[in-house]
Amino acid sequence: MSARRLPLFPLPLVLFPGAPLPLHVFEPRYRRMLADCLDGDRRFGIAYLPDQAPEDSIARGHVGCIAKIERVTALEDGCSNILVTGETRFAIERQVPDPSPYRVAEIIPYDDASDATSADVQVLAAHVRALFDRVAQAARALSDERESLPELPTDPAALSFGIASLIDLDLDKRQSLLVSRSAGERLDTLEHMLVAAVDRLEHRAGVHERAKSNGHGPETDG
Fold it and tell me: Whose CA is closest to 197, among 143, 131, 113?
């Protein structure tokens, strides 16, 4: 596998392939990185770095996601609000010396195994999609949201990342899903999470809807 160099943006978040992410760029070194990326192919790498962890702790083999800059809004103070979309995953080979004020890494592609095409994974993907639809509908009912659900990809690998980007997960769990090289493994993890949540959320959503229609006040779990 051929390596390439990529500007590195360590952040306390995880970007998934296919997912949009708004960012506020304010540090001078990352303002410089943004300018360089806009002069180039508009791409940089996001690597998960927990709060307070040193940047040199990002070691060989760390898995991140390439971010493509879709939109930039320049602010009067020199900072920028940007929107990026996750593209493909990468693994860091090494951080390389560079005259730029930001970090630069040599990266290689980080791909899935081929289980996404198996019949079992296709069946699992359909089940996870249906579970997510139920959870999302219940969550929207609880928040009185009327917007339509986001459109999800049909490919099982892309579906796993799409759902992971939309549900509430702690950062370590998000990173473990990003690192997984099996669509089936990711979907299985998501299935367990959604199954654990769906009945409780649907019950609460039903109570909430009844409370709104009969005027009995706030929802309860009774």
Answer: 131
